[in-house]
Amino acid sequence: MFMRIDHIGIACNDLEEKIALFSGLFELTVVAREVNEEQGVKEAMLHIADGEGGGSYIQLLEPLDADSPVGKFLARRGEGVHHVAFGVPDVAGAMEQIGAKGVRLLDKHPRHGSMGSSIAFLHPKDVGGMLTELVQAARP
Ligand code: MC0
């Protein structure tokens, strides 16, 4: 079902500061920046590699406000890994397949994600404490 890890999402208080840190430490390049109002984040994608089905990235996430998912996460846990996103060929199909196994879907329908992708989240309590995202890349 999963083709690859699409990205690791990192919650941070200051996007520009963490872009400088990650690009300096690992020599990664920012390939996209976006404000996603629906998800309540300002974000940057740092490219790691390309593979079958799409690329893999570090995604840096700064909350737009304290009541957003990333804002609440920062208040509760501080900066760090917020979610793991798996690349799938068909996000609606993957949602149906995983939902049938009893995992709670946090989205009823796929939503708009980074770089034109379609995404859906799975409840962390049903995936060993890991907030999990399914990603169908716009251009595999
Ligand atoms: C909360 N919990 C987490 C967690 N956030 N566990 C692991 N990783 C996380 N990131 C835990 C809480 O500690 C709590 O555990 C339990 O889940 C229920 O939390 P809650 O009190 O209901 O907390 P809420 O209201 O903060 O909701 C958490 C939930 C929410 C995951 C349901 O954040 C959500 O719907 N997230 C999906 C959307 C999202 O995260 N968007 C931002 C990234 P205890 O043990 O204390 O009960 S958007 C994005 O990444 C896009 C742009 C993209 O990739 O393209």
TrEMBL record:
Pfam families assigned: Glyoxalase_4
Sequence ranges assigned to domain VOC in this UniProt record: 4-137
UniProtKB keywords: Isomerase, Metal-binding
Its EC number(s): 5.1.99.1
Listed InterPro entries: Glyas_Bleomycin-R_OHBP_Dase (IPR029068), MeMalonyl-CoA_epimerase (IPR017515), MMCE/EMCE_epimerase (IPR051785), VOC_core (IPR037523)
Domain of life: Bacteria
BP terms from Gene Ontology: L-methylmalonyl-CoA metabolic process
One function term, GO molecular function aspect: metal ion binding
EC supergroup of this enzyme: isomerase
Family: Belongs to the methylmalonyl-CoA epimerase family.
The protein, known as: Methylmalonyl-CoA/ethylmalonyl-CoA epimerase
Species this chain originates from: Nonomuraea endophytica
Origin organism lineage: Bacteria, Bacillati, Actinomycetota, Actinomycetes, Streptosporangiales
